[in-house]
């Protein structure tokens, strides 16, 4: 029965029902930005919010082409965002729209909102830096599953890979993260910190 409600919500959004579109937006907007912050390599031309906004605009224009329910919408939307991020990155490389060097970009990409508590900022920065050390596919899968809470099927649709590939990349990514954290703890212990 829940599937019918989701189908009705998408159908209402297709007909231009603003409240249905707002509900879809409320379901996914924050998770999409969080995911993009963890997997998007900042290039100076667009940040996670810009890419998410472009993904939402693309989704609005192409909603008539979408086939699925409310649950399927997340995978479709995240796939659009992945493509927008790739396009943005390619475009910035060819146009050299980045005025800063890689050192400044890394610093600028980790700035926090003024109201965030310090521990949350430090934790977010650590998570971003750890996830960014993973190979691209593993970083995307870990961010989908562990950062924004998508399921395997939705992650599979969002990234355009099989569910088995999602599970394998997730396993490998978590293993690499555990190894890096263990090495960091060992180094801190050796330094007497």
Automatic annotation (TrEMBL):
InterPro entries xrefs: RNA_pol_sigma-70-like, RNA_pol_sigma-70_dom, RNA_pol_sigma70_r2, RNA_pol_sigma70_r4_t2, RNA_pol_sigma_r2, RNA_pol_sigma_r3/r4-like, WH-like_DNA-bd_sf
A Pfam family annotated for this UniProt entry: Sigma70_r2
The entry's keywords: Sigma factor, Transcription, Transcription regulation
Keyword Transcription among UniProt keywords: yes
Boundaries of every RNA polymerase sigma factor 70 region 4 type domain copy: 128-177
Family that this chain belongs to: Belongs to the sigma-70 factor family. ECF subfamily.
Identification of the protein by name: RNA polymerase sigma factor
Source taxonomy: Bacteria, Bacillati, Actinomycetota, Actinomycetes, Propionibacteriales
């Amino acid at each position: 029965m829940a599937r019918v409600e989701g189908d009705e919500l998408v159908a209402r959004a297709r007909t231009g029902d603003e409240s249905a579109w707002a509900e879809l937006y409320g379901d996914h907007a924050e998770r999409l930005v969080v995911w993009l912050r963890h997997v998007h390599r900042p290039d100076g031309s667009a940040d996670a919010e810009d890419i998410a906004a472009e993904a939402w605009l693309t989704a609005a224009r192409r909603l008539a082409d979408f086939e699925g329910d409310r649950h399927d919408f997340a995978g479709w939307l995240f796939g659009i965002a992945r493509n927008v991020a790739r396009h943005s990155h390619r475009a910035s490389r060819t146009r050299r729209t980045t005025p800063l060097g890689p050192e400044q970009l890394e610093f600028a990409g980790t700035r926090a909102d003024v109201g965030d508590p310090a521990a949350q900022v430090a934790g977010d920065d650590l998570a971003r830096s750890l996830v960014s050390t993973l190979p691209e596919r593993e970083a995307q899968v870990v961010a989908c599953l562990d950062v924004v809470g998508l399921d395997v099927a939705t992650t599979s649709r969002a990234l355009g890979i099989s569910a088995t590939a999602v599970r394998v990349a997730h396993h490998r990514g978590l293993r690499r993260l555990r190894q890096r954290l263990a090495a960091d703890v060992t180094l801190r212990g050796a330094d007497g910190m």
